[in-house]
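Hello Y.,

Per our agreement to keep a running log of every chain we model this quarter, I'm adding this entry. I've kept the format consistent with earlier entries: sequence first, then predicted structure.
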Amino acid sequence: MKKSREYRIVRIRIKRTKRVPAFLTALTKNNIVLRHLITTENEVSFHTTRKNLRIIRKLRYQYGITFRIESLDDDHVLRKEWIVYAGLLILFAIPFFFSQWIWQVSVENATPEQTDELFETLHEMHLAGPFLKRDKPDDTIIRQNILTKHRDLSWVHIHRRGSRIIFEPLAAPIIENEVINDPIKGNLIAKKNGVVTHFNLSKGERVVEENDAVKNGQLLVTGILKRGEKDIIYGAEGEVYADYWIESEFSLPKEITYQTMGEKTYHFRWANEKKTEKEWKVANLPKWFSMIGEVYIQQELIKKKVTIDEKSVEDFVIPLLHQKYLEKLPRKTVVKQEKLLNVTIDNDTVKGKVLFLVNENIAIKQAINQGD
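Predicted structure for the entry above:
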C-alpha cells in the first residue's frame, strides 16, 4: 500500500527566480525525471512521483527555492495502481460468481404435505439447496421426474426469477378409487401399444420385461404356473405401466378472457342477518359462537385477458390440455413430457399440435379358458 502511494503523480509549481535553472539541473543530476515541464514568465512546473519528494525538498533548501505540491491523482476517478485494479476485479467478480448460482428454491400454491413431498424429491435430485445454474437439468426432465413420483399431480409450473426457482404444482383431478372385486382368474394383456416402464404385481409371472415395446392385445403377465407338464391356473393381478404418445390438436381464439382467484376477505355477520350473494365460504368457529353470528369469507374473482403467443401456449395452453387428458384417462396416469410440434397464429385464431408422453397402466384382465 505504501509502495503504491510512492508512485502517485504530483505537480511541482516553482516561483520563477534566478536559481531555478540550477535547481532543475541538480534534480536531473539526481536522476529525477521531469515530465511535462512548463515554463512561464512567473513560474516553472513539472510532474514527478511522490518518491522523489524527499530529494526535491533536500535540494530546495540548498538552492533557496519555494514551491507548491499538487496531487494529480485527485483529478482521476481511477488511479493506475494494482490495488485499484484488484478492487475492480473483485467488484465485478463477486456479483458474477453469485449470479451463477440458484440460491433459493420454493414451492408455492401447495398444501404443506405436497410441499414436504416435493422438497424431498428435490433433495434427491440435488435441487433443493444452492446449486450452480449450469448443473440444473432441463425443465422437462425435472417435471418428468416429479410427475413420475407424485401421481397426484397433473402438472408442475417451474418459474425462474433471477437466482430463485419457484415450483407451482397443479393437483390432478380427484377420482374416487374404484372397488375391484373380480373373482375371474385371468392373464393381463395390453389394451394399447406402448413401451413398458415398470410393474406393480401382486400375482402372476412376467412375460415381457421393462423397456420392451408391446402391442395392443399382447400378453404381459400370465396367470398360469407350469409345474412340469401340469398347468396351475391361479390368475394374474396387478398393474403394468407403459409410455405412449398422444397427439393433440387445439384451436383457440387469440385473445382469451378468464377469471382467477384474488384476495380473500373476512366479514362478520350477526346470527339474524341474511346471507350475501358474494359469500364464498363460512369460517370454522366454535359452535357456541354461531349463536352470536358467523365469519364468512369472500373470494375476489379477477378477470384477466391474455393474448396467446408461442410462449403463452407453453405456459397456458399445454397445462390445460394436460388437465383435459388426465380427466379422461385412468387414475395414476401421468403425463411425463410434451412436445410442441407446431403453432400457427393468424389474426384471431391460434392453432397447433402437441405430443404428450403418457405413462399409464395398460394392463387389462383376460379370462383364462380352462382349455388353454
